[in-house]
Automatic annotation (TrEMBL):
Name of the protein in its database record: Glucosamine-6-phosphate deaminase
Entry GO CC: cytoplasm
UniProt-listed Pfam families: Glucosamine_iso
Gene Ontology biological-process entries: carbohydrate metabolic process; glucosamine catabolic process; N-acetylglucosamine catabolic process; N-acetylneuraminate catabolic process
Positions annotated as active site in the UniProt record: D68 (proton acceptor), H139 (proton acceptor), E144 (for ring-opening step)
Pathway recorded for this protein: Amino-sugar metabolism; N-acetylneuraminate degradation; D-fructose 6-phosphate from N-acetylneuraminate: step 5/5
Organism: Agromyces badenianii
Amino acid sequence: MAEVVIVENEAAAGALVADTIVSLIRSKPDVVLGLATGSTPLASYRALARRIADDSIDVRGVRGFALDEYVGLPAGHPESYRAVITREVVEPLGLTPELVRVPNGDPATIEHAGADYEVALTAAGGVDLQILGIGRTGHIGFNEPGSSLASHTRVKTLTEATRADNARFFDSPDDVPMHCITQGIGTILRARHLVLLAFGEVKAHAVAAAVEGAVSANQPGSAIQLHPHTTVIVDEAAASQLEHLDYYRHAWANKPAWQGI
Ligand code: PGA
């Protein structure tokens, strides 16, 4: 089963994620990070940026692959995930921009953009640590309910629930694109370590379904159960519908220090 770590708040989750990524960079300076957008990972990126600055960690070789991108936003649109990843990750961490890839949502090349991304991921040797958020629909990446558990990077139609959730970033709900290009669930499962973060009551159902529910395309997050190394880091509110909370706390409290997450 996935390891579930219950933390006090997003800052505590961020510290844990930052520690883990710093160790990875130290052991593999050209580590491949799988990057998520959305509000959830922001505290982790901030904590990581602080650690990199405080400890003078050389990140020039660190590589990154974003999970997903909107289709059809003009190049340079501030809410394109290319722009978000540049603003929230590449610049604050000081990564080398050319080493950080985002799926290409340009309609002119969209027919082969998914296959191109898969080739680039494979050529990079795959993702070492994949950061994941989870949508209240249960999506990971933009794999909405019904997505094949074996899927590869491809174009998907967003659900209206996801478009509504993301409307806060746009001037009008109608401006939220209808389509996206996203790593598939099969793509995500090839990463060597999955770290799924979720905070707040609004995520409690999706977290319980992902961690303890049936493995089903109806709950894309449940695919994490198929992965041998998944860490789920949640606050109390997001953990509130988990059945085996006592066990997760017990296992974490008694975890050998050398193991990390
Ligand atoms: P959020 O989105 O981090 O903004 O809540 C998560 C997701 O939709 O995967």
